[in-house]
Amino acid sequence: MKKRLTVAVVLGVIAMSARGQKLNESQVPAVVKIAFEKKYPSAKASWDKEDANYEANFKQDGTAMSGH
Length: 68
Known about the structure:
The protein contains two helices and four strands. The chain is of the alpha+beta class.
């Protein structure tokens, strides 16, 4: 259950909030990064934190994407 929730948080695509806090990759929990890498293995992400959610910002096929 915990793993499913983390995957949902990482991968649900939403618009960025102005309240987002920029993070270094080292500040993102390993389970969050692993879930992202499984879904988008070739993507390089920059990370934000919005409230309790981690958001990956990345490009896929030339399109800017973000996901919780």
